[in-house]
């Protein structure tokens, strides 16, 4: 606390990122990174862009990247927005579309950054309880509100909402913006992008951090009606006109140009996930059906907090949330086959099986 | 205008970056980029960092970069903050230290992003008139206020404030944060960094975009008392925990490690500036004394708007602001010797000399 802090700064409860311990080499299954490297074409494009032109500002409109993405998804360029990770885009979404006086709705168990954004902009929100099986019910979002954020699949539960259920929410909220946060959609879910020309109230947010193996490059995307994209640009240009550097722009374009690599690595993650779910269930875990690159699992005979600690001692990092309703669960990112075999083997011995 | 925009979005007047025309190759003297490329060590460090680790999140604390900068300036690491360009840092400064009810002070002629930040956060501000010669007077800032932003040197005027004058402002505002925006300080000015251990109310903001030739990499820095740095981190971690990608972190560290290159290119820009000022004055221009990598100049016999247009037709881009008090001036970035010779030659023929 400092007398120089604004009231806002003093009252904020900032987001806490997952731990990145440097004390030893871990099998890192705690921050939902992709176990496979980015496409070689991405690496090559970045090396090419590491040249004397770095003395010049990047294109503030990110036109070439927006064009590439628009073509990839069959959208128009003015339906595409890009930012410094999907976190930054969400940080623009809240002031762009939500008014302080009206309650924003999102699930009670979800990405813990949502309430922080609301706090940052002095907004009110109401969390909507997911059911006992962590399902999000569309009808709970068909009530008066000032905007909606639906993570799909949800994190940390991995629960996936079908497109028809999303349509129910979009139909009931024609006057509010419905944001679908699809950070994990590429691992088996169906994207709401197909609804964009039909629903001017829909904004889909995605990222290169997970399915494109580029958490270290910081690139996120949003798709929606051109009026929504213009709204995001108004906020962006009141905050920072040059959010993406020349290297991130070059790498992101290359990522969308290597479809074969994307399909191959995504399929591998999905296959390893299915293998992992089966083995976790064999060990007695209750595992939520997942369409993400992580699973959410609890064991009836072992405390999640204990397992978390014991796994860390064995050099395996997973994520544990000491929060109501989910404090008996572990969130486990899907690694390589070898990493998941090591996890299953460690759990085997910890559970005395 | 869209019914989905928040009231904030609808009422904002976003910043407009300098034009980056793509219709032809220009001599680009309009956005204060450095005419020399970044250090070869920066390019090499980025190429090294373009590797498989891009699948992993960057260090959200940017510890290694903060350590490097702290050592460079003789500060402690907790007195250093880094962000996605100094624009992003300024966008964190406004909510971190300024309350909506109290008036922020900054000059009437200055970087046009300051009032946009205030608008974004619903803050009030009062612009303080610079004098006829564009000087900022310290005593004008010794009045009740809710925070102060002093650009030094100022843009677009290039006016420089001495350290003793800054001290007057710091002494008179012990309960407010005084932000000194030193984007252009390395071209001949003295940095207020030397005051940091003495004034807990001082925050110095700098950038790699100008003197380090890295406008395309998007890295800014802030230095101040650890409480101020903590305040900035609270806002950052309520907005986006990973603002700097792995490539920007690697390149920025290398930039601080190549002092010889920095000194050589900065000296060249300063020498070319002095040559340019002399030749502009010989052509009859009134040129403000500059300690930046640009000059602000007006000609008694020619309209600035006309010269801007005529230079563009000749393939030379400079910056013209159609704003009260400065609409008779051109802001001209310092290019290479060859570029400035081309400018002087073009002006020579335009002025019929």
From TrEMBL, chains A, B:
In this chain, where does the modification N6-(pyridoxal phosphate)lysine occur?
210
EC primary class:
transferase
Q: Which UniProt keywords apply?
A: Amino-acid biosynthesis, Aminotransferase, Histidine biosynthesis, Pyridoxal phosphate, Transferase
Please name the GO terms that the record assigns under molecular function. Answer: histidinol-phosphate transaminase activity; pyridoxal phosphate binding
**Would the keyword Magnesium turn up in this protein's UniProt record?**
no
Q: Per UniProt, what is one Pfam family of this protein?
A: Aminotran_1_2
Subunit structure, interactors included: Homodimer.
Protein name, as recorded? Histidinol-phosphate aminotransferase
The species this protein belongs to is Candidatus Cohnella colombiensis
């Amino acid at each position: 606390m400092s007398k120089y802090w604004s009231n806002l700064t003093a009252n904020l409860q900032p987001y806490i990122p997952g731990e990145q311990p440097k004390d030893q080499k871990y099998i890192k299954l705690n921050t939902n990174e992709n176990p496979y490297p980015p496409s070689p074409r991405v690496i090559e494009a970045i090396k090419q862009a590491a040249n004397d032109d770095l003395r010049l500002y990047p294109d503030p409109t990110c036109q070439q990247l927006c064009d590439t993405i628009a073509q990839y998804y069959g959208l128009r360029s003015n339906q595409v927005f890009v930012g410094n990770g999907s976190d930054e885009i969400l940080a623009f979404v809240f002031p762009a579309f939500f008014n302080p006086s009206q309650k924003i709705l999102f699930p009670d168990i979800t990405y813990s950054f949502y309430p922080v954004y609301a706090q940052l902009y002095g907004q009110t929100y109401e969390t909507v309880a997911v059911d006992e099986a962590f399902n999000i019910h569309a009808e709970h979002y068909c009530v008066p509100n000032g905007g909606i954020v639906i993570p799909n699949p949800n994190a940390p539960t991995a629960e996936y909402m079908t497109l028809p259920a999303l349509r129910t929410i979009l139909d009931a909220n024609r006057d509010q913006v419905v944001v679908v946060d699809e950070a994990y959609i590429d691992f088996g879910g169906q994207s709401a992008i197909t609804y964009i020309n039909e629903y001017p109230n829909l904004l889909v947010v995605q990222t290169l951090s997970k399915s494109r193996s580029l958490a270290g490059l910081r690139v996120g995307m949003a798709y929606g009606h051109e009026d929504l994209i213009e709204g995001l640009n108004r906020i962006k240009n009141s905050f920072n006109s040059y959010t993406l550097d020349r290297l991130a722009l070059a790498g992101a374009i290359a990522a969308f140009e290597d479809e074969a690599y994307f399909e191959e690595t995504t399929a591998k993650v999905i296959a390893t996930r299915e293998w992992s779910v089966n083995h976790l269930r064999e060990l007695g875990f209750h595992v939520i059906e997942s369409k993400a690159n992580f699973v959410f699992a609890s064991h009836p005979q072992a405390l999640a907090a204990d397992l978390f600690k014991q796994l860390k001692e064995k050099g395996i990092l997973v994520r544990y949330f000491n929060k109501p309703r989910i404090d008996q669960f572990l969130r486990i990112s899907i690694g390589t086959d070898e990493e998941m075999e090591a996890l299953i083997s460690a759990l085997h011995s910890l559970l005395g099986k």
